[in-house]
Design a protein that fits this description.
The protein is an all-alpha fold. Strands 1-2 form a two-stranded antiparallel ribbon.
Length: about 325
């Protein structure tokens, strides 16, 4: 080592480097020892703060690059993604493309579903398969009946009052005692005396009033009498021929459309007449109890079906 400090700096350089190295090593050792004495919980807290600060810095950087949209823009983005699914379909209608027709379909969705269920029950009753069977394709049968109703509505040029009974019958819309619309009321006996009593056989109101009761039987007898031989070889007309407007074998479909709807309308008219006559008889008995009861009401069923003879002779089945 030189004796004075006036020597050149290059002479002191090795000494300075040696001293600095020793100081650095001692400092590093002291720092490591101090770090080891720090509580691990404090270290973990410090690391979490640092991590959170880095995440905040990253988010601020992203916001500077991609700024958040305002409330109006966000609402517009949400509204564009709103829509509805039409009942009975997988089609989705966006809110901006909604039409009045589609809105009407959406509003009537529950009613449409209920109508589908009622019509399926009607077709099953017409096919005499009230229980689920493997041979009965309910969806196909209902679709076929839908097509029949559409054809009758568009092709048959006739007053709607003559089609009303069929439309209402298909959705259980005829107010018959004991049907689904009056399920909470007890089944009232029919004026014919064969339905609704305690000793009457089990039957459904629709089946009784539009197939089994005396006026309906008389009308059916007239139709069976004029059916072609090919239709009578298997028995007679079935109620699926009448209710589902399906022409029996050997009969043309076009005239059968009119005949079937007219038969249903005449049965409904006869039901109203019988109910009015029965109501009048009960009122007379209530007003004057001393008066002897009127004789048993006899419905003159032979008059109504006579109108079919002329139609059958003119070529209608």
């Amino acid at each position: 080592m030189p004796n004075g400090l006036n020597g050149p700096i290059s002479t002191w350089t090795p000494v300075i480097c040696l001293l600095c190295g020793e100081i650095k090593e001692a400092t590093h050792t002291a720092i490591i020892a101090s770090y080891a004495e720090i509580n691990p919980i404090w270290l973990e807290a410090a690391q979490s703060v640092e991590t959170r600060k880095q995440e905040e810095d990253r988010q601020q950087q992203e916001q500077r690059v991609h700024p958040l949209p305002d409330c109006k823009t966000v609402m517009a983005m949400i509204i564009r993604r709103l829509g509805w699914r039409l009942p009975g379909s997988s089609t989705t209608v966006p809110i901006y493309g909604l039409t009045v027709r589609q809105a009407t379909q959406l509003q009537g969705g529950p009613a449409l579903e209920q109508r589908q269920q009622l019509m399926a029950a009607f077709v099953q009753e017409a096919r005499d398969v009230l229980g689920a069977t493997a041979q009965f394709d309910s969806e196909n049968e209902v679709n076929h009946f839908h097509a029949t109703l559409a054809r009758l509505w568009s092709d048959v040029r006739w007053e709607n009052k003559n089609k009303e009974t069929l439309w209402r019958l298909a959705v259980d819309g005829v107010p018959l005692p004991g049907n689904t619309h009056l399920s909470r009321m007890p089944t009232q006996p029919c004026g014919c005396g064969t339905f609704g009593g305690s000793t009457s056989p089990l039957s459904f109101p629709r089946m009784h009033h539009f197939w089994e009761w005396p006026i309906a039987q008389a009308v059916r007898d007239q139709i069976d009498r004029h059916l072609p031989s090919s239709a009578t070889t298997e028995g007679s007309m079935g109620w699926h021929h009448l209710w589902l407007i399906q022409a029996p074998p050997g009969c043309d479909q076009a005239p059968w459309d009119v005949i079937a709807m007219a038969v249903l309308s005449s049965m409904e008219h006869g039901r109203h007449c019988l109910r009015a006559a029965t109501r009048g008889q009960r009122q007379m008995e209530t007003n004057d109890p001393r008066q002897p009861p009127c004789p048993q009401l006899q419905t003159r069923v032979e008059r109504g079906p006579r109108q079919w003879s002329g139609s059958c002779c003119q070529g209608a089945p």
